[in-house]
Amino acid sequence: MGMKRRSFRKITTVLLAATLTLGLLAGCNGSKPADNKQEKVLRIGVLSGGYDDSYFRQQYTDVYEYTHQNIRIEVVPAIDQSQYRYSDGSEGYQQPDYLESMKKIMTGGNPVDIVVTDTSVLNQLIQENMLKQLDPLMQEDKFDTSDFVPAVIDGIKDLGDGKLYGLTPSFSSSALFYNKKIFTDAGVEPPTDKMTWDDIFNLARRVSKGEGKDRVYGFAFSRYQGSDPFYDMQYNYVNALQLKTYDDKAETMTVSSPQWIKVWETMTKLVKDKIIPDSSVGMSDGAMDQWTPISGDLFLSGKVAMTIGENYYINEIVDANNNAAKIKNYKAVDWDVVTVPVHPEKPDVGGNIWLSNTFAINSAAPNPETAWDFIKFINSEDWAKLRSRGNSYEMVARKSYIEPKQGLDYNIQAFYLLKPTPPTDPKDDKMLIEKPGLYSVTNVGRNYYQEVLENKKTPEEALKEWEEKGNKMLLEIKNNPKTQFQEDGTPFVPDESGASGVKY
């Protein structure tokens, strides 16, 4: 579900200069000339949207409509987010079912032609034969994908047993950012691509130094001051191992295992030894009283030697460095990037490539030819060339047009060397919607993790207790799928109105 929230990007205007290249774009990759006599409506289904679709249009459709005067594009959200603006909260928040909502706008009397999804929804639509295979269309039109980032193309092919059911013009990714000066000062060789997590943790130990508020930590999962070690670990480390909290039926916990114990032993020792910062770092050393634009950033403020950051974090670093003279006690950071660390079991999988805007053709599309023409257009070389010019929050999918920002020199391939972790099983997503209490089953683990950090329990003891508590919660959910829980894992009892009320 983490993928969903990343679909909300900061709005950046990318088409102000687009009119200069319209003549060039009109013939993208041999695009067939449209029939100019009769207007066609091309309907594009997106996972979520609302009353304002201008950002999506600026990013993907305006130039196409301008160069194809007989095509009118309608953007159709599967989930209309504007409905939540007027909710009084009495019904509580329920995670929307993106898959079922997308299927609704793909069927019926007026189905959408194109769907724009993340890989989780795309995966299930492929399984249910609701998408048109693109390989034959690409062969017929000699549409070449050899220039696409292998991780992007292979990541999509993996969903379709080696066949392509979608294409994306852009992607987001993460890499490991490191502070060159900290490594030089410590006389330690900096990290390299495809290092294992253990290699990175060993490096982190060697460059950690100092005491109290002057402590420099070797590594942080997140650059944000006050971030949560439990969820940082879950998102970046546990997920890449594909460790499950409970079984496929959500009936039995699976956390009291040797692999889980090893993970918690490794992580809690790193926090206790002050190699990885805990959530209090930066919060109690007077930093909040001396706010600067970089005080909430552990990497820019020099408190950590290495951290995981998204590709658009580069914009923030460059901006801070360009304005270093205006920021109190700040020296420009000399930095570079390598791939996110890998697990030895999966040496080519990084887990941090997001294909959140993958375009596919509905099997029931009323206008499949126009749909393919549009997908070719936004996945063309000319489109990549145009998109690569701006400071986009995503990277273009064609390697030839991926270049370091603002003439800088850094290891940009670190963002696309590794394959993405396979998407979450759509059945898991569906279970979370049908059984919202499952979020709490994971969340209650945070309490036990904290007890390990406070030396109240060993990892083995804490995980065993999490398993016992979780099994009780799973039983409650099995008996009543809509059961919700408090932070300590105690169920709520609905009052007469149906709202969650007093615990028992």
**Backbone shape:** globular
- The secondary-structure element order is HHEHEHEHHHEHHEHHEHEEEHHEHHHHEE
| N→C terminal distance | 30 Å
Q: Kindly state the number of beta strands.
A: 12
Number of helical stretches of at least 4 residues: 18
Strand content bin: 5-15%
Query: In angstroms, what is the radius of gyration?
Result: 24 Å
Uncertain regions spanning at least 5 consecutive residues:
1-31, 283-288, 495-504
Overall mean pLDDT score? 85
Percent helix? 25-40%
Structural class, judged by helices and strands? alpha/beta
Write down the oligomeric state: single chain
**Main beta-sheet annotation:** 6 strands, mixed
Describe this structure in words.
It is a single chain. The protein is an alpha/beta fold and 504 residues long. 35% of the residues lie in helices and 13% in strands. The chain has helices at residues 2-5, 22-25, 54-67, 98-106, 119-127, 135-140, 150-159, 180-186, 197-207, 229-241, 258-272, 313-322, 368-378, 381-387, 426-434, 438-443, 445-453, 459-479, and strands spanning 40-49, 71-80, 114-117, 170-179, 217-220, 304-310, 335-338, 353-354, 358-361, 395-396, 492-494, 500-503. Strands 4, 5, 6, 7, 8 and 10 form a six-stranded mixed beta sheet that branches. The chain has a four-stranded mixed beta sheet with strand order 2-1-3-9. A two-stranded antiparallel ribbon has the order 11-12. Strand 11 and strand 12 (500-503) form a beta hairpin. Helix 17 (445-453) runs antiparallel to helix 18. The longest helix is centred in the C-terminal third of the chain and has 21 residues, at 459-479. Residues 1-31, 283-288 and 495-504 have low confidence and may be disordered.
